[in-house]
Structure formats: structure tokens, C-alpha cells
């Protein structure tokens, strides 16, 4: 990650909602290497359930998820 010199970000909880297994794991590994906690789900409903359980600080959402399941986590984020 690119940061200004001397800038330290505290660890945050990241939720990754992505149906591509390899991409999901690579993103989680990248966030964890930077000191963040990463959880992930393969679909919108699973992501919503995890979000309600873990209260993430950041959600990385694949807008190209199959079906129409993207609306579920987006609706949650608007609350």
C-alpha cells in the first residue's frame, strides 16, 4: 500500500465479498500483511451475514457478483 512517509494506519477489520476464490485469498493476504484483520464471503447474502456478525470498518465488494445479490450488502451499507 502507498502511504505518506511516517503515516501509520491502525489495524482495521476488512470484509471482502468476492466470488473468485484466488482473488479473495490474495486480497485477504494483502490486507493481513499490512496488519489488518480480513474476513471474506463468496456472495452477497454471506457477506451480509458476516457484516452483521463482525461489524467491519471497510467492505471490499465485487460489484460483478453473479445474480442480483449485490443489492443486499449495498443496502446494508446505506443504513
Low-confidence stretches: none
Strand runs, count: 3
Shape: globular
The end-to-end span amounts to 29 Å
Question: Helical residue percent?
Answer: 25-40%
* β-sheet strand percentage: 15-25%
Oligomer status:
single chain
State the helix count: 3
What is the averaged pLDDT score?
80
Question: What would you say this structure looks like, in words?
Answer:
The chain has 79 residues and is α/β, with parallel strands linked by helices. 39% of the residues lie in helices and 18% in strands. The chain has 3 helices and 3 strands; from the N terminus they run E-H-E-H-E-H. The protein has helices spanning 21-33, 44-54, 71-77, and strands spanning 13-17, 37-41, 58-61. A 3-stranded parallel β-sheet has the order 2-1-3, sandwiched between helices. Helix 1 links the parallel strand 1 (13-17) and strand 2. Helix 2 packs parallel to helix 3. The longest helix is centred in the middle third of the chain and has 13 residues, at 21-33. The protein is globular and about 35 Å long. The model has no long low-confidence stretch (mean pLDDT 80).
